[in-house]
Amino acid sequence: MPVSTVHTILRNRIYTGWFEWNGKLIEGKHEALVPVELWERVQGVLDGRFASKAKRCRHDFAFSGLIACHACGCAVVGEIKKQRYIYYHCTGYADKCQGNPASCRRKHVREEALEAQFTELLGQLCFDEEVLEWVRDALHASHADERREHEEAIKRHQAEHKRLQDRLNAMYVDKLDGLVDTAFYDRISNHWREEQNRCQREIDRHQNADKSYKDEGIALLDLARNAQRLFAKQEPREKRRLLNFVLSNCTWEDGEVVATFRQPFDMLAETATAVARTKAGENAKSAKSEIWLGNLDSNQD
């Protein structure tokens, strides 16, 4: 008999001689096959089993799905040992599919060790107020051309919007003077107003794009500067989201995590590291300029 069928039978109260109707228990006229006391004890056992299973399934491992095994490329997943310790290991799926021993799977690393390594990585994004202001200025300068393009586009659409409005005003006067009939005026004026609406949408889009860049740039700087502190306080799911946002290509080899920063966090980390290694102010400026202005030149090629 299928397990699902057995489960249905064990859960069905009707075998006790009772059944439920509209939320009420009603005693049936049929013969009971199972004593009520025994049936209730069975429900308690089943509830306990399914509660334990659900509890196991609900556990959210902070780094599962985030790291790949350097040796075979398979996912590194979390597992609870002795009901309290969390270890991560490679699934070894590639080896198992080929019929080979899953040697990667036998290597484990404690979650605390991975968390410490990620914390150290995020520490590369820490920088002081001087670097923060310099990076803000560099970001502002690096997008000067883009900002000018938005401003020029806004001026073009504003001029077109005004030109159409002048035409509408002139044609309205012609209508009042009887030079154009109402049907012609309505048809042409509706078309020109649609064009005005299109111009206004483009104006709004370019204005929002420039504002969005400023807001997102400041938000990214704040996130980078506080990433290490935020990481320490967050729940597993939020830790994973933060790491996914900041890091890429996370791999694990013999207990060590290797990862690269996504843009623009890679330049922020490089800038913070260069400044930390530099003692003289002029050299610090040179290091920062080489990183940011050099990257700007490469983007413009």
Order of helices and strands: HEEHEEEHEHHHHHEEHH
* Order of strands, widest sheet: 3-7-8
Number of domains: 3
- N-to-C span: 71 Å
Q: Could you describe the 3D structure shown?
A:
The chain has 301 residues and is an alpha+beta fold. The chain folds into 3 domains: 3-56, Hect, E3 ligase catalytic domain fold (Alpha-Beta Complex), CATH 3.90.1750.20; 68-115, no CATH class; 125-300. Helix content is 64%, strand content 13%. It is built from 10 helices and 8 strands. The protein has helices spanning 3-11, 36-58, 93-97, 111-122, 129-142, 144-176, 182-233, 236-246, 265-277, 281-300; strands at 18-21, 24-27, 68-69, 76-81, 85-90, 108-110, 247-253, 256-261. A 3-stranded mixed β-sheet has the order 3-7-8. Strands 4-5-6 form a 3-stranded antiparallel β-sheet. A two-stranded antiparallel ribbon has the order 1-2. 14% of the residues are buried.
